[in-house]
Amino acid sequence: MALTTLLAACDSSQPPAQAAAPAAAATAPQAAAPAVAAGPSSTCPAPTFDGFLKQFTDDPAVQKRYIADPLESDTVDANAEPEPAPVKKMLSKAEVTFPVIPDSARQGKDGLVMKKTAEGDTGYAVELAKPDTDYQMTFHFRSADGCWQLVRTEDDSL
To answer: Which residues form the signal peptide (predicted)?
Structure first.
C-alpha cells in the first residue's frame, strides 16, 4: 500500500491531495455495490450512456450493431378513420432503415432538439423533436450485453 500511495502522490496529472485520495480510499471499508445486470463493458463504444448515445447517433455502424432484433416500431396512421390510430410492428434488422436516428450535424441543421430521460434503472428514452411542428420521435434504450441497445422507436409525428 505504501508503494501505491507513493506512486499516486507522484502523479503529476492531479494535485497531490487528489492523487493520494484513491490510495487512501482503497484502504477504507467499502459498502457492497448493487450488482448491475448489464453495465457497459470494454466492447461497448463508450462507458457511459451519454458517450454511447453520441456514438450511436453519429455512426450508422454502431446503430446496426446495437439495435434489438426484432426492433419494436410504434407509429401513428394519420389516415385511419375516424381518427389517427397507433400501429405497432416488430421489425427485423433487415427491415430497419439506417440511420435510425439523424446524426448530430443533421439534427442541428434541421432544428431538432434532443431530450434524454431515465427509464427505471436500466434504460433511457431519448426524444427527438422539432419545436412548433408535429415531428416527434422517441428512442428507447435498455442495458443489454454489457452495453445499451435500441429496443423500441416511437414516431408520434402526424
So the answer is: 1-19
Going from the C-alpha of 89 to that of each of 79, 92, 100, the distances in angstroms are 17, 10, 15
Domains of the chain from N-terminus onward: 1-31 (no CATH), 49-155 (3.10.450.410)
Measuring CA to CA, which residue among 130, 125, 127, 126 is closest to residue 108?
A: 130
Dump pLDDT digits (tens) for 10-60.
Answer: 433 333 333 344 444 444 444 333 333 344 445 899 999 999 999 999 999
Residue 120 Ramachandran class (φ > 0 left, ψ -120 to 50 alpha, else beta): left
- Residue 70 or 5, more confident: 70
**Which runs of consecutive H residues, i.e. helices, occur in the chain?**
2-9, 16-27, 49-58, 60-65, 104-110
